[in-house]
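Let's practice the habit of predicting before peeking. Look at the sequence and jot down your guess about where helices and strands might fall. Then scroll down.
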Amino acid sequence: MCDYPTVNEDLLDEDLNARTALAQAVVRLGHQVRDQSNLRVRQPLAEIRVACNNAAQRDAIEQLASVIQDELNVKTITTVDNLDGIVQYAYKPNLKTLGPKYGKLLGMLRKDLPNLAPEILAPLRSGSNVSVEMGGETIELEPDDVLVSTEQSSEWGTADDAGVQVAISTKLSPELIEEGMARDFVRHVQQLRKDADLEIENRIHIKYRSDASEIKQMLNVWSDYISTETLADSIESVQEMADGKSVSVGEFATVLSIGIAE
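Done guessing? Here is the structure:
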């Protein structure tokens, strides 16, 4: 029943709020790319690139880089001026808005505007107006006057909103795939611990059955990580298992069981 505390507005950090809002936007767009590319968050990815409009944005991304990387499970984050090379842009006149302004010039705009150099029209993507010379006329273009379509590289997923642009590498190396499998393995074992109502400090033995050589290869590399995360004293491959749980580790079927270590 206490009074709600009064806000001390002198303590508000507007710069911090702006940096955090930008980081949240990047993370939201990154998750959007993952959803579009059908890449679950437990699957590590190599890189995210963030196109920054100014030095302040670049500084904000660099200050909160580790937070963004953790949220999106990416190895590196790179700030860039633009996503050229990853995304190709095509520009077409929006006849609905240009008609009332330049009715007699619509034929020329329809023909010549798509052929302008992309860097001339690029400011439109960030909300700026552009002035161009066409057919001896000065044409003032606002962002709504031009329809922008994109075509992205097959190895990158992209998203943008309100001037924030991100590109995430969707190429999965064998090492990244194995790490994703290790994270799956840990998640399933942790769920078995929870189902068994184990105490946090209880150490366990893990048994698994799988015909996939990829599972064994992953465990050769990631067994120490899995053991540390799950408090496992051993991880044993068995041929028969009566009481195991069927799970998917990456794309591979596996049966898991755990027991309390003596």
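How did you do? The radius of gyration is 26 Å.
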